[in-house]
C-alpha cells in the first residue's frame, strides 16, 4: 500500500504520469495496459486489470504441444510394455 501522498500534474491533454512510488506499488501494471477510472466525490479511483487472453498469448511459444508430448509418452510406454511382454513369452 502506498504510505504517503505523492503529487503529479495533469497535462493539457488530461494525461498524468504515475509517480515512481505509485508505480512501484502497482508493479503488476504494464505500460499499454488498460485500466478503469471511476470518479468519486473528491477522488478518482484507478483500477487496473489484465486481459486474460492477451496475457496468455505466447505462453506456450516454443514449447512442445501437449498432444505431441502425450503421443511421445504413449510410444515410450508401449515400447516398455512390449519389452516386458517379451520376457514372459516362451520360445
For this entry, give a set of tags.
91 residues, two-stranded antiparallel sheet, 37% helix
Outline the structure in words.
The chain is α+β, with helices and mostly antiparallel strands. The chain has a domain of 28 residues. The chain is 37% helix and 11% strand. It contains three helices and two strands. Strands 1-2 form a two-stranded antiparallel sheet. Strand 1 and strand 2 form a beta hairpin. The chain is rod-shaped, with a radius of gyration of 28 Å. The termini are far apart.
Topology diagram in text:
Elements lengths: L19 H6 L9 E5 L4 E5 L3 H5 L9 H23 L3
Antiparallel strand pairs: 1-2
The major beta sheet can be summarized as:
2 strands, antiparallel
Note the run of SSEs as H and E.
Answer: HEEHH
By DSSP (H or I, 4+ residues per run), the number of helices equals 3
Stretches where pLDDT is under 50 for at least 5 consecutive residues are none
The end-to-end span amounts to: 75 Å
Report the radius of gyration as a whole number of Å. Answer: 28 Å
Shape: rod-shaped
In short:
It is built from three helices and two strands.
